[in-house]
Design goal:
Length: 645
């Protein structure tokens, strides 16, 4: 009984072991005005736990004095949900009868801390764009202030490169009012490699507005003006700027720029939609682009890194909405474009907002966590994988149906993308011998890079799975041979436009269905490469690999007792294989006669195994560079794929 006192106590003990502050930290009582609420802190040098308990059988409100932790974010330890950040004012909470909270007080992000330590630069000019964008003020902006600001932004993708020069290439006024924001385009040149263009909308805030932005969105502050209560900031945090962007698209306005023009291009439906320009908010969270909501109806994305041509996210979303009539994407509503001669760059995309319960990744983690609890509740009886009935009981009845639905919707997505035969950008194309050789050569190059990196970092890996890494290294020739088998295919499968970066985080769960998002492809790849037609099985392999990541991510949650992890690892692998198979079978049923699926079963198996191996090998390189402790996931994935071939 997972709801029993025994299981509650096991979860509490497991959580207590994960935080040293519970057992070794100092104890500091807080004294709220409500005597029916007990509140105290447990603290070590690197951990602060806040415990709040309602001692009453009735719901109780409480306000806590946590001013010395201003800026910290309380994270509830069991759900991992983040509550609103602490402020200098008293922090209000409401507790149900006999309820309690255990919070970890998380410090602001490393980027925020760094920005707090760095002194905000001062601009020695009058706070106005006519002065700021000319003469010595402009030189200071381009040489020092903007380069330093860019390197601290989450959306700036070239932090590892050295900026040689930065130039403002366009700065059109967005508003009809002289004091309005500027939609600035910046060219960044590096000491090595090609230059890049970024969007950085700028606005000047004064007095109370300046104080509000400095307080609520410190990361948006670029510089202060000397001898005045004014700041230069990222204009996405200015409601007037957001309103103007919305209206420019909706009203099909054109704005003159120095080298071209900015043009709003709405869908027919959006031109007659309700004007929600005055009801906007910035979506928080670290993203490679900047997003905002208008009411609960529209979602606008400002692309930060710009490339010449139509962004795949815009192109595919518009095609699926207007021509394929595919219902499982946010409907296309319009774009903001920069046009110069024959060249077009997409600056922003607006789509319908989708009411949802979170992404499929979060939903999956919750489901896997419940699965592990069911496995542990029967630990004494589970020495080996049991009967089909037992397996169904452990996995549960809801998630397999969701995995089937996800597979079905993925198949329908690919059918929609392959439905146009007259448009060269979307018409399916035969997978000829030259295309097959190109795919195999790309796979071989990726494999060699990943395995070379794995050899270099082998001694840095944990002893617990170093032997497994050596097994995979020893299988390098087998992996290359498996990928080379793609050249043996003689089926008539076609290549089509695909999602390109397909995983559980790219699907919203509405409660009843799934909605697919973000058709940009892998951001690190050039735009032209992201628009190439490929095998639909690349998307399938990406989603199947995502199931394994979910299984292990749930296994490594803080609420999990460390002594249970070794026992659960084989059950994690089992869950991943079962759900991947469920997803795949549903996908194949939805695409049984599709021209982009190999008709020969042997060809299908060879192709899918090759794409799964290619994805897992890519993950090895990524994890070694970013999360070395996670490299065990693709290593075990490769072992499973090779074992099943």
């Amino acid at each position: 009984n997972l709801s029993s006192l025994l299981w509650w106590m096991r979860r509490v003990i497991a959580m207590r072991k994960n935080y040293k502050a519970f057992s070794r930290g100092s104890l500091e009582f807080l004294f709220p005005e409500n005597p029916k609420v007990l509140a105290f802190l447990r603290r070590t040098e690197d951990e602060t736990i806040l415990v709040v308990v309602n001692l009453s059988r009735f719901a109780q409100p409480v306000e806590l004095d946590l001013a010395k932790f201003s800026g910290c974010i309380p994270m509830e330890v069991f759900s991992r949900n983040r509550f609103p950040a602490l402020r200098r004012s008293r922090y209000p909470l409401t507790l149900g009868p006999h309820a309690h909270y255990w919070f970890v007080l998380q410090s602001p992000s490393a980027a925020s801390r760094a920005r707090k330590r760095v002194r905000i630069p001062t601009i020695a000019s009058v706070p106005g764009f006519s002065e700021l964008l000319t003469g010595s003020a402009r030189r200071d902006l381009e040489r020092t202030i903007l380069p330093n600001y860019l390197t601290g932004c989450r959306w700036f993708g070239a932090k590892a490169r050295t900026i040689r020069e930065l130039r403002i290439v366009e700065d059109p006024l967005i508003s009809p009012h002289p004091g309005g924001a500027r939609h600035v385009l910046i060219e960044v040149n590096y000491t090595e490699g090609a230059s890049e263009i970024y969007t950085l909308p700028l606005q000047i805030a004064r007095d109370e507005n300046a104080h509000r932005i400095s307080r609520e969105a410190q990361q948006a502050v670029i510089a202060e003006f000397a001898d005045s209560n004014a700041i230069l900031h990222d204009a996405t945090f200015d409601p007037d700027y957001r309103a103007e962007i919305y209206r420019i698209i909706r009203e099909q306005r054109k704005l003159r720029a120095r080298r071209g023009e900015i043009v709003g291009s709405p869908s027919a439906q959006f031109t007659t939609a309700e004007d929600l320009s005055a009801n906007s908010s910035v979506m928080r969270g670290e993203q490679s682009n900047s997003s905002m909501l208008f009411g609960a109806k529209y979602f606008l994305k400002i692309f930060r890194k710009l490339e010449e041509g139509i962004n795949p996210d815009v192109e595919i979303t518009r095609f699926l909405t207007e021509r394929a009539k595919f219902p499982n994407v946010p409907a296309f509503a319009g774009t903001l474009e920069y046009r110069s001669g024959k060249n077009t760059v997409v600056l922003a995309l607006i789509q319908s907002a989708i009411a949802n319960e979170g992404d499929a990744w979060t939903f999956t983690l919750d489901s896997v966590g419940s699965y592990y609890e069911r496995v542990l509740s029967r630990k004494a009886d589970l020495n080996e994988i049991g009967s089909t009935q037992l397996i169904q009981e452990l996995i549960g009845g809801i998630y397999p149906e969701k995995a089937r639905l996800l597979g079905q919707r993925t198949g329908e997505l690919h059918r929609a993308l392959a439905s146009e035969t007259d448009d060269p950008a979307f018409a399916p194309e035969p997978f000829n011998a030259m295309a097959q050789r190109s795919v195999v050569q790309s796979m071989r190059a990726s494999s060699r890079r990943a395995f070379e990196l794995l050899r270099k970092k082998l001694d840095d890996l944990s002893e617990a799975f170093r032997a497994e890494a050596e097994e995979v290294l020893a299988a390098e020739k087998q992996i290359l041979a498996q990928e080379r088998r793609l050249l043996e295919q003689r089926s008539a499968a076609h290549k089509i436009r695909i999602h390109g970066d397909f995983h559980l985080g790219q699907a919203l769960h509405t409660g009843r269905d799934f909605i697919f998002l973000d058709f940009e492809g892998e951001p690190a790849r050039p735009l032209g490469e992201r628009k190439l037609k490929r095998s639909a099985l690349r998307d399938v392999a990406g989603m199947m690999r995502s199931f394994q990541y979910a299984a292990y991510s749930a296994l490594w949650q803080p609420a999990m007792r460390q002594e249970d992890v070794p026992f659960l690892e084989k059950w994690a692998d089992f869950w991943y294989r079962e759900m991947s198979s469920t997803f795949l079978q549903s996908y194949l049923a939805a695409t049984s006669d599709a021209l982009f699926i190999p008709r020969n079963e042997s060809d299908l198996r060879i192709a899918l195994e090759a794409y799964l191996l290619d994805k897992a090998v890519y993950e090895i390189g990524y994890e070694l560079n970013h999360r070395p402790d996670w490299v065990v996931i693709p290593i075990r994935g490769i072992k499973h794929i090779l074992k099943s071939t």
